[in-house]
Amino acid sequence: MLLEKIKTTTDFLLEKTNGFRPEVGIILGTGLGGLVGEINAEHEIPYEEIPNFPVSTVQGHSGRLIFGELGGKKVMAMKGRFHFYEGYSMEQITFPVRVMKAIGIHTLCVSNASGGVNPTFDIGEIMVITDQINLFPTNPLIGKNYPELGPRFLDMSEAYDKKLIAAALEIAKNNNIKVSTGCYTALTGPCFETPGEYRYVKNIGADAVGMSTVPEVIVARHGGMRVFGLSIITDLGVEGKIVEVSHEEVLQIASAQEPKLSLIVKEVIRGL
Fold it and tell me: How many other CB atoms sit within 10 Å of the CB of residue 269?
């Protein structure tokens, strides 16, 4: 039963960390694990040691849970997330977010690498996520609803917190970091998108497309958490600019922009 699994995992983490109660959760995407170096870490736990946790199988996702301080706040950071294309269920993908809520986290920061379909975007662009579109063939809230976790029918009119978006834009401006805003959508992967799929996601209103984030954000909002998200545009799905892309290239581009992303996340957290 989901509630029992959440309790078992939460109890384990509290015992392992001597009762450490984080306020902010962070999920670090492909090539974006460098933010961990900014955290004054007190505890690091490999995923394979944590009851009921899946194990990340993707290059660029190391698979550790970090407890410490960032921006003057207690944080719990996932260095490496879980993806639908790895064969995990929606419940498994979002389970860590359920645990975050149970352990006391009120705000979730997510990051990812994505393909830009907005023709004004450049490779390496940082996009503050303002909205999302779920193109997975399922939803993490399908099935039995537990009132203890959230409402049966979830309002998603503000998936990403407007005040945190405004704070991020101000931080970027003050630090001369060029950022854009936009809507993120997710397909299952693991294929990168075809030109036709890029056209499709652009035509339905997306600015960037990836393979993650959407399920975790749904579950975070289900639990009443505030959400803030950033995408790094690692390739372009714009007609005339589409080139062959590899996972290695995505990692390189994301890693190069990671210090700017880390600064924004740290300062957003500081302002909470």
Answer: 23
CA distances to 147, 198, 202 from 110, rounded to whole Å, are: 25, 23, 22
Q: How far apart are CA 129 and CA 208, in angstroms?
A: 9
H or E element at residue 2? helix 2-16
pLDDT-derived band of residue 237, with 50, 70 and 90 as boundaries? confident
- Sorted by where each starts, the structural domains of the chain and their CATH numbers stand as 2-270 (3.40.50.1580)
Classified as helix, coil or strand, 32 is coil
CA angle 145/148/154 to nearest 5° reads: 55
pLDDT per residue as tens digits for the range 85-122: 999 999 999 999 999 999 999 999 999 999 999 999 98
Report the C-alpha gap between 215 and 97 in whole angstroms: 10
Q: How far is CA 91 from CA 97, 102, 144, 204, in A?
A: 10, 15, 11, 27
The answer to whether the CB of 61 falls within 8 A of the CB of 83 is: no
CB 130 within 8 A of CB 159: no
64-70 vs 73-79, strand pairing mode: antiparallel
- The model's pTM is 0.95
Angle between helices 90-103 and 2-16 (to 10 degrees): 50
Q: How far apart are CA 215 and CA 268, in angstroms?
A: 22
Beta bridge partners of 233: 114
Contact (CB, 8 A) for 211 and 190: yes
Tally: H helices and E strands in the chain: 6, 9
Q: What is the rounded CA–CA span in Å between residue 208 and residue 197? A: 12
Q: What are the beta bridge partners of residue 248?
A: none
